[in-house]
Design brief:
- With 631 residues, the chain is of the alpha+beta class.
- 32% of the residues lie in helices and 16% in strands.
- It is built from 22 helices and 20 strands.
- Strands 1, 2, 3, 8, 9, 10, 11, 12, 13, 14, 18, 19 and 20 form a 13-stranded antiparallel beta sheet that branches. The chain has a 3-stranded mixed beta sheet with strand order 15-16-17.
- Strand 18 and strand 19 form a beta hairpin.
- Helix 15 packs across helix 16, helix 15 crosses helix 18 and helix 16 crosses helix 22.
- The longest helix has 22 residues.
- It starts with 6 loop residues before the first helix and ends with a strand.
- The relative contact order is 0.18.
- Bound molecules: glutamic acid (GLU).
- The site of glutamic acid has 14 residues, from loops.
């Protein structure tokens, strides 16, 4: 998200503006900006008083941060300069993104935070995934014996999972941070109160959601102008309700969100969505109770890991399929001497490995508290060896791959067929969304701690319902459950009370010889997995610098029924496209996914105390990377 306006100028110009009053756009550039990636030193005062120019790459020393948004990244750098650690900084960034990137993430959603603690050399996965309410049963997703259409579930109370973000932030800070929630939320409160200029990303996201935002009273009042149209680019957008909600949390802690007036407002918005009188939109009510919010718990889980050549790759495990699928694909690729292959051969293998990983993902993976997924077998190198021959080196597939038998590669037995914990199911199903929202934050600090954090409200704009009086959108994360056409068909990812829907989020941290080498992640629904995999292959195997690995055109193979692969338009004109076509690959233009696959951020640690932070240069109109001490 590009910023073009120093906040101080807006504050002066808008001292008497009412919330979200339109200002004439202020031009970019200006001699008063600091250099690309160069955040002013804390001793110079308020870092936000004079916003630096946005830059997608920055190299230097001490801490580093990359997010989709200038203010998000700056909030992280500000905390680092004040002496906070990477966890403090990641939460500060996420708080600001909840204000400036409200259609991708926020306190109405959840996420997965992967934390590397330099002291102790430990990697921890903090799961604060949204959870099905206690009264949510799979049968609610069927009407007249048929699944409710995915689009209809998106904008509904039935798709709202118990939000995990606030408890996730609170637990992360309490266990691994140095500052409190009240402290790290201050910048987000200030940005929500003072406002920020609507940029192209914010405008586009509102425009794409226009009809449903117009149909929800509270959403229309906040995110649309008096003409019920998106706020134009250049408008100073303020969110005093969100500032007040953050203030409640800052003062009262997580209980101010999970109990009391905020919790009551969330439950009311789910049970009686505030639909505009006369609207034709059918917004189904959900079944969330106050007790679901009160009882929500995060999970601290061991990080999942695999080795890939000289590297150890850490990811998050179930209920995200991300770390497992990335690891499985890497295990398949490891046997190829990629450096000696042609670019077409490399891409052919990358697609083949991803296809096989997705075949198993669709069949076996679900919330580990509900199903015995064969994770050990899936991650075994022997299992990869047994599956690799299914990648035909001479021709592209024309059909989906069947899942394998990972149980044969682990000592844990397969659950009895038909038992409640049996984990084998069918394919992912049509509701395995590929939308391109969510956001990824990567932060490190001078002590060597790293946070790789993907957070989301699922769809762009979540379920479309702003919690009245509180300024944030609710998630529609429960659309990540699988809804088989036959309601009696078993699947590890069907909805159950208290279950977490399977995710694709893949926050990743890579070590080499025990030292940090890389941290990365991306949004993009199930394409998250292929984006992370492609960046790893490009950087580790092809030797592309991390910024080039991240900005290169992407393609995504997710075991499609006809073997076809989604490709960004830029890839279709790349030299490899022709070679892949001659092997029989059908590349579909990802214009159907909104034209872009992912919006990644990464940190590359060079081993000499320097670090390069990288965000997208073009996707989502470009992200922001900064280091604490530019070189
Ligand atoms: N709900 C998705 C997941 O958990 C993330 C949404 C997105 O990235 O678009 O996998």
């Amino acid at each position: 998200m590009k910023n073009t306006t120093p906040l101080v100028a807006l504050l002066l110009l808008c001292a008497s503006c009412s919330p979200n009053e339109k200002l004439a756009p202020i031009g970019a550039g200006g001699a008063d900006r600091s250099d690309a990636g160069a955040a002013p030193d804390a001793s110079e005062g308020d870092l936000f008083a004079q916003l630096p120019e946005i830059a997608p790459t920055a190299t230097g020393q001490r801490g580093a941060a990359a997010t989709v948004d200038l203010r998000g990244t700056l909030a992280a750098i500000e905390v680092l300069k004040r002496g906070g650690n990477a966890v403090d900084a990641a939460v500060a960034a996420a708080g600001v993104l909840g204000v400036t990137d409200p259609f991708s993430c926020g306190i109405g959603g959840g996420g997965f935070m992967l934390i590397y603690l330099a002291d102790g050399d430990e990697v921890i996965a903090l799961d604060h995934r949204e959870t099905a309410p206690s009264r949510l049963e799979a049968r609610l997703y069927y009407e007249d014996g048929a699944p409710v259409a995915f689009d209809e579930l998106v904008t509904s109370g039935l798709s709202v999972g118990v939000p995990g973000t606030v408890r996730g932030w609170s637990d992360a800070l309490r266990r691994y941070g140095t500052l409190g929630l009240g402290d790290v939320l201050q910048r987000a409160i200030q940005v929500a109160e003072a406002g920020f200029d609507v940029d192209e990303t914010f405008f586009d996201q509102t425009q794409r959601n226009l009809s449903r935002f117009q149909a929800i009273t509270s959403t229309k009042a906040l995110f649309l102008g008096p003409d019920a149209k998106p706020w134009p680019v250049g408008t100073v957008f303020k969110n005093p309700d969100l500032a007040a909600t953050y203030r409640l949390i800052a003062e009262g802690g997580e209980r101010a969100f999970y109990e009391g007036q905020v919790a009551a407002a969330i439950v009311a918005a789910v049970k009686e969505p505030p639909v505009e009188p006369g609207s034709a939109l059918d917004v189904r009510a959900g079944v969330l109770e106050l007790s679901d919010l009160r009882d929500y718990e995060t999970r601290v889980r061991p990080a999942l890991s695999t080795t890939y050549r000289d590297y150890t790759i850490y990811g998050v495990g179930l209920p995200s399929s991300g770390g497992i699928a990335v690891a499985q694909a890497l295990n398949l690729l490891e046997a190829y001497d990629m450096a000696t292959l042609t670019p077409v051969e490399v891409h052919h293998r990358y697609l083949g490995a991803s296809r096989l990983a997705f075949a198993d993902r669709g069949a076996f993976l679900g919330d580990p508290e509900f199903v015995d997924a064969p994770v050990k077998g899936l991650l075994s190198k022997d299992y990869a060896d047994s599956r690799r021959a299914l990648i035909d080196l001479a021709a592209a597939p024309s059909a989906a791959a069947a899942p394998g038998d990972p149980y044969a590669f682990q000592s844990d037995p397969s659950p009895a067929p038909g038992s409640a914990r049996a984990a084998k199911g069918g394919s992912a199903g049509p509701n395995d969304a590929d939308d391109n929202e969510t956001t990824h934050i990567t932060v490190s600090d001078a002590a060597g701690n790293i946070v790789s954090y993907t957070c989301t409200i699922e769809y762009e704009g979540g379920n479309g319902v702003v919690v009245p009086g509180h300024g944030f959108l609710l998630n529609n994360e429960l659309t990540d459950f699988t809804i088989p056409p036959d309601p009696s068909a078993p699947h590890p990812n069907v909805a159950e009370p208290g279950k977490r829907p399977r995710s694709s989020m893949s926050p990743t941290i890579v070590l080499k010889d025990g030292e940090p080498a890389l941290a990365l992640g991306s949004p993009g629904g199930s394409t998250i997995i292929t984006t992370v995999l492609q960046i790893l292959v490009y950087h580790i195997d092809l030797g592309l610098p991390i910024d080039e690995a991240l900005s290169a055109p992407r393609l995504s193979q997710r075991n499609s029924g006809d073997g076809s692969t989604d490709a960004e338009t830029a890839f279709l004109s790349a030299p490899e496209a022709e070679g892949l076509a001659s092997l029989g690959h059908a590349l579909s233009d990802a214009a159907t996914l909104g034209g872009e696959i992912g919006a990644a951020t990464a940190l590359r640690f060079h081993g000499d105390g320097t670090v390069t932070a990288v965000a997208e240069p073009v996707r989502r109109h470009g992200g922001s990377a900064m280091v604490e001490q530019p070189r």
